[in-house]
């Protein structure tokens, strides 16, 4: 119990950690609210609670995200050894850098801070977000292939610690794929009607996909902190 509390405190101490916790709470509220709001009208208390949670989730998610994600790969792209991974990282970073200004313009338009229509800016933001997620999935799959080859070479002449580290990296990439796929499913849902399953997700399913992605992000963040602690 104490270790869990300490891990939560460590997460909340960082700007990135607080964003991830808020994101988890928002999508979790949408998940629970979506389930409760589907109950029969006779269950008034549960139905109203569900509506309140959905309203809270919508209000919180309408705020613009912080820009730390867009800066995560800056300065790191050049360190990639594989050409395909390096170029995918470059394109991902470009999509991320373009996404946040578009999202902030859309948010400012909805808040009537600027006199432009927000619809096109939200659509552009969603397209850029989905592009970044798709590129992230391709990058993780490529990295998994490279790690698999490296692990096969280490099976014969590598140390146990190096094999263990490679397996941890592979698990991290698998989690990244699952997280990005969950977010990508929501991104497609928010596209204009007629595009794949756009607009067909109920609130609880949007909340579920977002919650899964957010929890994976928290797990990865905690695992990264533990790896740094072990290496020091």
TrEMBL record:
Protein name per its UniProtKB record: Uncharacterized protein
